[in-house]
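This part of the workshop introduces the protein records we will be handling. Getting from the letters to the tokens is the skill we practise here. The record below serves as our worked example for the rest of this section.

…
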Amino acid sequence: MSVTPLPVRRRLSPEESREAALDAARALLVEFGPQAVTLKAVAARIGRTHANLLHHFGSAAGLQQALIERMAAFITTTIRDTVFRQRAGEHNPREVVDLAFDAFDTGGAGALASWMILSGNEDALDPILKAIHDLVDELRDDHHDELPIEDETLQLVIMALGDALFGAPLTRVLGLPRERARELAYQVLVAGSPVT
């Protein structure tokens, strides 16, 4: 009888281990939803122990907090860079709309944020809220649209979050194309006036 040896696990630095865990947590979030983001599932995905992840994050809530911080930083940095690039050249509001909608939908931010609110962990949203606040502060100076940037941001985030959570079944039942909410968000952003 031959025995297949177990694969040798490569020793990771603490930072590499933490990053691998966050990559796995995001993959689980997107594939299976926020309830799948557990220490046990993440540990299994990266070939580490539950104790190893406890060392890095303290708890499942700590892992989820680190994940939402990472996602918020990525989303706002991507949007900020896009806005600055557009201000310097070709103006394409649709790109900003798509980035926001993708972040909340296929990126998993909408499901994670909603799950945290519904599970009573609203404080976990602080990184997202702070990142959005900081982004608006940074973009405010060169904002020349009719509608204040705070209103544009509120509309875009609420529409993207709502679409991520309820857009597919609602557009289906209303007989609308799946991309209709994005189109409406784009029209509002281009018009520079609030939805009435």
Notes: The chain is about 70% helix and 0% strand.
